[in-house]
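testing teh design pipeline on a random one, pls ignore if ur not involved
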């Protein structure tokens, strides 16, 4: 019920309404106005209401319903995310970009190991060197890239753990396919637990 209707009632129970009634005499008439925007009196009332509030900032005027506002916000964020992700000048996350060039709200990686594989921040010699953790190489001597993909797909030292992962698979396939991603996690765990058997210290 609008405040005006409440004010017209004979016995209003709301204290604020009673106060307003007490302030208003016959020199003041009350009128319902269709919309707030553009009506001088209403604008002034809005202004006073804002000043009276204790908020440090003024309210945002939403020219559309809350739900549409949320939808538009999401759309704007998606556009921003996409343009940033696809920006040729962007130097961040390019390894992940090479695997997932398109943005997606449904993609969700919740495994620490899979995150390592998808970001190239994995448990492997190239990563250790890049972040000055230690200098080592693969014991098998078969790889020069020293990355996680080597023992995930190619290394003879982990071949006994590979049933689903093939050397022809893309990293994207391994990460997104349920069986191969499970296997990848198992291989990563194995390498972490048997580090000394897979990596050798460099002099
Ligand atoms: Zn190897």
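output:
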């Amino acid at each position: 019920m609008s405040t005006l209707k409440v004010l017209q009632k004979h016995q209003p129970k709301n204290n604020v309404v009673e106060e307003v009634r007490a302030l208003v005499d016959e020199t003041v008439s009350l009128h319902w106005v269709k919309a707030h925007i553009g009506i001088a009196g209403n604008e002034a009332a809005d202004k006073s209401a804002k000043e009276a509030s204790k908020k440090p900032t003024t309210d945002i005027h939403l020219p559309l319903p809350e739900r549409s506002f949320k939808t538009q916000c999401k759309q704007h964020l998606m556009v921003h995310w996409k343009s940033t992700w696809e920006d040729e000048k962007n130097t961040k996350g390019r390894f992940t970009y090479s695997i997932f060039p398109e943005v997606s709200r449904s993609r969700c990686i919740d495994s620490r190991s899979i995150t390592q594989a998808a970001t190239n921040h994995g448990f492997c010699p190239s990563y250790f060197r890049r972040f000055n953790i230690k200098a080592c190489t693969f014991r098998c001597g078969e790889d020069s890239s020293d990355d996680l993909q080597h023992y995930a797909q190619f290394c003879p030292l982990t071949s006994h753990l590979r049933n689903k992962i093939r050397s022809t698979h893309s990293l994207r396939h391994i990460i997104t396919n349920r069986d191969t991603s499970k296997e990848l996690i198992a291989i990563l765990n194995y390498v972490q637990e048997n580090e000394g058997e897979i990596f050798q210290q460099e002099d």
